[in-house]
Amino acid sequence: RCVEAFYIYFHAGRVEEPYVSITKKRQMPKDGYSEEIEKEVGQAEGKLCTHRSAFSRASVIQAFLGSAPQLTLQLYICVLQQEVTVARSIFMVLSLLSIVYGALRCNILAIRIKYDDYDVRVKPAAYLCIFLWRSFEIATRVTVLVLFGSVLRIWVFLVVLLNFLGFCFYPWILFWLSKSPFPENIEKELSRVGTTIVLCLLTFLYAGINMFCWSAVHVELSDPDLISKSQNWYNMTVYYIVRLMENAFLLLMWYIYRTDFYLYVCAPMLVLQLLIGYCMGIFFMMVFYQFCHPCKKLFSSSISEALLSCFKLLYFICQHHRSTLLAGKVAVKSPENTDEARGSSKTIDSQNRSLHQSVSSNA
């Protein structure tokens, strides 16, 4: 693909192309209106776009199935040896940049797939926000897994396995609950077995991405494009809340079971720095979706409104739970109160009877 892409690029425009295709894209709405623009795309440009899309997907695969395990392994070796060599630090920085670049490409691909009808133009500020968001998120996630695995080596495999299997089977569970027919239009030459293998590989990659960061592409097997094009703020909010709680729990386990090996480290300060780093990633994510997203004008609701509705839902759930607890306490106390009232009424009746007898005897 690289050789063909360079060949097409350097020979473009020298020979007149036999035919061109016309694509229609809509601009971002201005004052509530969006214009449709027609553009002629030649054969060479179309092939270059195909190659660029393939390169973007390959960078995502290489980042999360190659660089992410490599970064985790190198950091684990540095922790065990209590030494960071120059060569290893260079490799770790390159691996981290590769993962961040793959996550960035995944974000851009998700935007272009979801808003395929629009002419999407990503500004430099958006790239900067995505870079900072993914850098903080991935770096802190890898560090938390390495620290936890350095003291609880067996349990880290259980954590990784549960995360991976959960995200791998999640799209299949949604597909089974939707009761949709099995997708047959992925590729005409593929059989049913081949289609199943392709879908399994897709969910495998989806689980690998979500192991380290939020996947901007939400796999939906019931959709013809296999990707959900709706912006679901609730799934993102739930993911980051659960992931923050998981990171805090893993750091707490590391803090409790840490050995004398970590005497040279200020453990409370390290835990605080990692949690703040992950919160910084969430902060830049919110800045991106609130201010720098190229298609923010197409959102039915902003991320601030979605977070506000989530907090209202949590507040309503807490209030409902509190009211049910109070109702249960009142229901438990009410029989006791009735028994006490009956006992007091019986004592009053007995006192009245004794008083009546004494009066009658005196008479």
The structure class reads mainly alpha
Strand order of the largest sheet: 1-2
Low-confidence stretches: none
Number of helices: 9
- Quick one: overall form? globular
Question: How much strand?
Answer: under 5%
User: Which sheet architecture does the biggest sheet show?
Assistant: 2 strands, antiparallel
Helix content: over 70%
Distance between the termini: 122 Å
Order of helices and strands: HEEHHHHHHHH
Kindly give the count of domains.
1
Radius of gyration, whole Å: 31 Å
Q: Averaged pLDDT, please?
A: 81
Could you give the count of β-strands?
Answer: 2
Pfam family, one: XK-related
Subcellular location: Membrane
Keywords: Membrane, Transmembrane, Transmembrane helix
Membrane topology: Multi-pass membrane protein
Protein topology:
Elements lengths: L1 H10 L8 E7 L9 E7 H39 L4 H29 L9 H28 L1 H26 L13 H21 L20 H25 L9 H26 L10 H60 L1
Helix pairs in contact: 1-2, 2-3, 2-4, 2-6, 3-4, 4-5, 4-7, 4-8, 5-6, 7-8
How is this structure best summarized?
It is a multi-pass membrane protein. The protein has 363 residues and is mainly alpha-helical. It has helices at residues 2-11, 43-81, 86-114, 124-151, 153-178, 192-212, 233-257, 267-292, 303-362, and strands at 20-26, 36-42.
